[in-house]
Design brief:
about 90 residues, 1 helix
Length: about 90
C-alpha cells in the first residue's frame, strides 16, 4: 500500500484537522449538553485530537478552549463546530 497516498487522512475528520481554530456552530450552541453559564460558545478553541477508531466514537473531536478554566465540554461531533477563518 502506498503510505504517501493516505497521509492526508491522518488527523483529519471531515473538514477539520488537528490544529484548526474552532467555535461552536449554531447547532452546537442549541444543544443542551453544551450549555453552560460560563461558556456561551463564542470562545475560541483548538482541535487537539481526532479519534477515528475506538475511544469516543460518538464525539471524536477533542477541543482545548483558549483561556477557559471552568468546567466546559471538550468533546464534540463535527456538526457542533465551525472553523474560524484566519
Amino acid at each position: 500500500m502506498q503510505e504517501w497516498k493516505y497521509r492526508e487522512h491522518n488527523g483529519k475528520m471531515g473538514k477539520f484537522r488537528v490544529g484548526d481554530l474552532v467555535r461552536l456552530s449554531s447547532y452546537g450552541k442549541s444543544t443542551e449538553q453544551n450549555s453552560n453559564q460560563a461558556f456561551d460558545g463564542n470562545e475560541m478553541g483548538m482541535i487537539v485530537e481526532i479519534s477515528r477508531f475506538g475511544g469516543n466514537r460518538k464525539y471524536p473531536i477533542k477541543v482545548q478552549w483558549i483561556n477557559i478554566t471552568h468546567n466546559v465540554p471538550r468533546r464534540f461531533f463535527f456538526r457542533e463546530l465551525v472553523r474560524i477563518r484566519t
